[in-house]
Design goal:
This protein is mostly helical. It has one domain: 434 Repressor (Amino-terminal Domain), CATH 1.10.260. Helix content is 67%, strand content 0%. It has six helices and no strands. It has helices at 2-17, 22-29, 33-40, 48-58, 63-66, 86-116. Helix 2 packs across helix 3 (33-40), helix 2 (22-29) packs across helix 6 and helix 4 packs across helix 6. The N and C termini lie far apart (43 Å).
């Protein structure tokens, strides 16, 4: 139950810290606003597919929702506008996904260099 509460809490924090409304995030996720509201309150569970879309949007890993000690640096600069539409969030999500992949590749290269050295 604690992990579920962590997922709900972090989901809500990411949305609020990015100044997105429940309606904006719901539009991006292609769900009803009530789905987001109920999930944030712990009244509903979230699918892994939706959680992956959230990770892509905010630039975090799934581990961030599982491990309370897991940290990440938010890309909040991307969310400065108050008039973001689902299409804008799709672009931000794609860019965040590329950034996450680059971080992953760099970490793998670093590990490979350590093994060689």
């Amino acid at each position: 139950m604690a992990k579920i509460n962590l997922v709900n809490k972090r989901f809500r924090e990411l949305r609020k810290n990015s100044n997105l409304t429940q309606a904006q995030l719901a539009d991006f996720l292609q769900v009803d606003q009530s789905y987001v509201a109920k999930f944030e309150k712990g009244e509903r569970r979230i699918s892994i597919n939706i959680l992956e879309k959230v990770c892509n949007l905010f630039g975090c890993d799934l581990k961030y929702f599982e491990d309370e000690g897991e940290k990440f640096i938010s890309m909040s600069i991307a969310f400065r506008s108050n008039n973001l539409q689902a299409e804008d969030l799709e672009v931000i999500s794609a860019i965040s996904k590329v950034a996450r992949n680059i971080r992953f590749i760099n970490s793998m290269l670093g590990e490979a260099a350590e093994l060689e050295g």
